[in-house]
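Reading a protein record of the kind used here takes only a little practice. The integers have meaning only within a learned vocabulary of local backbone shapes. With that in mind, consider the following protein and its fold in token form:
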Amino acid sequence: MRRYFKYVFIITVVILIAYNPTAYTDTLFLKDGRKIEGFIVEERKDFYLVKILIGSIRVRKENVSEVKRLLLEENYLNFGNQYLLTQNYDAALEQYKKALEVNPGFQPAKKALARTEKLKKEAEEKQRAELESREKELLEKKGRVLSGFGMDLGFVNGKLNVIKAELDSPADVNGIKTWDLIPQIDGQATQEKSLEEILNYLLKPDTTSYKFIIQRDVELTRKRIKHQKQVVVGIGVFLDADEDGIIINSVITGGPADLAGLKARDKMIAIDGKPTKGISLDEAGILISGQESTNIKLTIQRNVELIRK
């Protein structure tokens, strides 16, 4: 245990000395020539408990040759100065205020407090200006994507949505609708990226063609459908299967699926919330079948290629 503490102690001392050699409070001079600068918060028979920026450490008295202690208000002032060097303005202000609570007339703390409040205000104004600039730039990029593809994009509940699809635009002509999800663009998951990254990608100067995966939930009502001199109850689709799930092979003209805009090669990834990956065509048929006038919800994905104007 003592050997382990020795290793931790040495590492901590090295980190502390390397961190900030100019701002200090209490100083413990060690017998091996090193020193620890911090705030002695407790003294016991065998050790000092020293508070430093990265936490608290115990320093055994047998390793200490001399202790230089400052006034409490000076300790708070120096701690504030250390926080100020890392631009942690709130923490620095807190330490300066503590110094003034101990000694209301302590001029160095008063000056440091005023200086830090000014620096904090300037930093906040700079941050606000940068944020406004980024928002303005983001709006400009959204406008260019809207102009180029005919769709306004945004994240809703962590998922990329088509906020608006303009009439007769490339998006609209290719069947994209308002509030469609876009889980992938060119094989890359959109959920892992920021809106700015996505807009930058869609505005790349070296390409104008992009492959989107569009996803939407479609509510249908089962109806009587006449097909090849037969009358059946359903939604009017014929299905196929691949390794990723169930595929719409064809759509009966005038049926519920056709009227809802479903197309051949649309991928049916869920039926009434149940994922279709791994299920058989027979199982999918059972899930789709039902009585006339009953409702069914399909989650559809479609591959769409758009060319930016």
